Amino acid sequence: MDYTILDFLCLLGAVCLFLYGMKVMSEGLQKAAGDRMRNILSAMTRNRLTGLMTGFFITALIQSSSASIVLVVSFVNAGLMTLSQSMAVIFGANLGTTFTTWVISLLGFKVDISAFAIPLLAVAVPLLFSKKGRTKSIGEFIIGFALLFMGLAMISQYVPDLQKNPDMFAFLQRYASMGFTSVLIFWLVGVVVTMVIQSSAATFAICLVMFAKGWIGFDLACAIVLGSAVGTTITPLLASLSGNVAAKRAAIGHLMFNVFGAIWCLAIFYPFISMIESLCGSIGLGDPNGLYKFVNHLQQTDPDIYNNLFNNTLPAEHPRAGDLSIATQQLIAMQASASICLSLFYTVYKFINLSIMIWFTRLYVRIVEWIVPARKKSDDEFGLKFIQGGLLTSSELNIAQAEKEIAVYAERVGRMISMGQELVHTKESSEEFNKLLSRIEKYEDISDRMELEIADYLNRVAEGRLSNEGKLRIAGMLNIISEIESIADCCYGVGKIMLRKSQTKAEFNEQIYHDIDSMYKYLSEAMDMMLVLLNNINNVDEHSLMRSYNKEREINNMRNQLRTANIANINERKYQYQAGIYYMDIINDIERTGDHIINVADTAKDIYRRRQKTLH
Fold first, then answer.
1. pLDDT, average across residues 557-567
2. Per-state percent for the chain, helix, strand, coil, to nearest 5
3. Which of 2, 109, 391, 492 has its CA 20 to 30 A from that of 266?
């Protein structure tokens, strides 16, 4: 057998180059327009039609349904869209992947890929040295585009040449003549191969080469392509493993869409193939099986021409060189026609599948919710809601997940404020006091762990391909989580003060309780304003910012007034000196909490203004 281990490794390398080209192209595009893409995706999913169009165009742009659906999983994970909204985008992405097959089909055999791939690199690489981040991203996009087609050319070069390896050809031929069983076998081959290389486009490229060289018939080529649609679901499934329940549901929905599509298509496989063949004939493409028949007929009737057909080894002065030239021209024409027919099958299948499944979106949602039930967690249990410590997908778009998680983090810490106020009014040494203090301590521990988890996630995102604006946002977000953790420390500080107070038997009078409650009222209002800012950090309201600053001034002014009144009250013996000390410790602690809250507001303002400056 002429096909060596080195040839196989070269094929794997070609597939890897193809996949890497798609990855670089996708990341370059996301960095050039990632923030706009996130806004478009969240805005254009209000109904099925707009969600469908969004999924189609995003997939057509980044040339990978797996990549776009992984992005959808990330958005669902980040809470930017509901499961129902994500289904329409997933359906559109499945249709959008046919755009890639048409690009491969129309350009893969008619254009000398190396003729424009290398010049594209010559144009793109200088863009990487630009001072503008967006120009660099455009350069990366062009480089990825060139690498993708270079990989496609190398796949065609290193796919096993079955004509020169009769043992391998006999092996495939044995499984290619078993009727519908052969269809199921080659469908399974498409599933497995795509799961391994994690790209239906790469499987389509390999299948297209095999079909165009006449190694397999049109029906078996369609079976491989149909299997690749199911195999491509592995990438979003892997991405969802580290996500929340909503992300897992979105990935399962994508799997169901393609599995159900494969079931109905296999059930009517031969009539469906006959319809595609008739369609190809009616639009002037001819019989898609003509290529297979031509190559096999040539093999049986004219072995000399057949043996030289794909490598063109006959010298120009050979007496049969003219016959070989005619056969080669016929082959090229049939290759182009057959590749378009295969793309047409994939497109018609996806379109019909979409037309059927789009009406069952709500049923899909109910089914996936039944398959992946929600896990109920107590508020006192540790666990992130929107991000996990597993796989990262697209760095630029992972920022949205962290933003949502930070808002949840702040909301959880905000509950400690009311706990601290309740603790002040709870009788010391009572069972209720000990339980509440223990709960505050547990929340503070959860706060520390959440800060570390979010910070670790942000640091890992920062290691990926990010625009300058994205890096600045991450720096601001790291500052925000540090301030939120300090708020939790201050809330726990009240518990420590009350514990010391209980040990010294100091007593607060009604005036002290009233003053502490007044401070807590201002603090709770400031916390509510901070949560509003964090929940809408990409569109900070200037009016909300001014209210936050005014509330901070009110807290500071009241602290100063109470500090002055405390000295007079101690001198007038309205309460003991020790009680006054603990009282002022609590007031100062509340005021420090307000400082950390306004620091968060300042950072949110800076993030928003930098983002607006970048967009405009």
1. 93
2. 80, 0, 20
3. 109
Residues 6 or more apart in contact with residue 588 via CB below 8 angstroms: 559
Q: Among residues 357, 366, 364, 305, which one has the least CA distance to residue 331?
A: 305
Comparing 32-41, 66-75, 165-174, 368-377, the range with the smallest average pLDDT is 165-174
Phi/psi of residue 378, nearest 5 degrees: -70, 150
- What the block records as the tokens of 200 is 């239906």
Q: What length does the chain have? A: 616
CB contact at 8 A, 364 and 87: yes
Which one-letter amino acid corresponds to residue 68?
S
DSSP structural state of residue 129 = T
Tell me the H-state helices in 358-467.
Answer: 361-371, 395-424, 431-462
Among 293, 154, 276, 272, CA closest to 214? 293
Whole-Å CA distances, 215 to 14, 90, 110, 147, 312: 20, 34, 20, 27, 18
Cα separation, 543 vs 493, whole angstroms: 32
Contact 147, 122 (CB under 8 A): no
Nearest residue to 523 via CA among 416, 400, 380, 370? 416
* Radius of gyration of the chain, Cα coordinates, nearest whole angstrom: 32
Q: Looking at residue 373, what DSSP letter applies?
A: P
Burial (CB < 10 A; 0-12, 13-18, 19+), residue 229, is buried
Centre a 10 Å sphere on the Cβ of residue 230 and count the other Cβ atoms it contains. 22
The span from the first CA to the last CA of the chain, in angstroms, equals: 62
DSSP assignment, residue 427? P
Backbone angles phi, psi at 513, to 5 degrees: -60, -40
Q: Which of 37-41, 49-53, 319-323 has the lowest mean pLDDT?
A: 37-41
Q: Residue 63 carries which DSSP code?
A: T
Q: What is the pLDDT of residues 149-159, one digit of tens each?
A: 787 667 657 76
pLDDT attached to residue 469 = 76
The answer to whether the beta carbons of residues 15 and 155 sit under 8 Å apart is yes
- Map tokens 């009078």 to a residue: 509
pTM: 0.56
- Taking the CA atoms of residue 11, residue 16, residue 18 and residue 22 in that order, the dihedral angle to the nearest 10 degrees is 170
Instruction: Using DSSP, state whether 213 is helix, strand or coil.
Output: coil
- Residue 594 neighbours by CB under 8 Å, 6+ apart: 522, 523, 526, 551, 552, 555, 556
Residue the block writes with tokens 């490598």: 311
Q: Say if residue 518 is exposed, middle or buried (CB neighbours under 10 Å; 0-12, 13-18, 19+).
A: middle
| Pairwise CA distance, residues 323 & 306, whole Å | 11
Among 524, 593, 594, which residue's Cα sits nearest to residue 552?
594
Cα–Cα distance, 165 to 210 (Å, whole number): 14
CB 205 within 8 A of CB 103: no
pLDDT tens-place string over residues 452-493: 889 988 888 887 767 777 788 888 999 999 999 999 999 999
DSSP for 181-202 reads HHHHHHHHHHHHHHHHHT-HHH
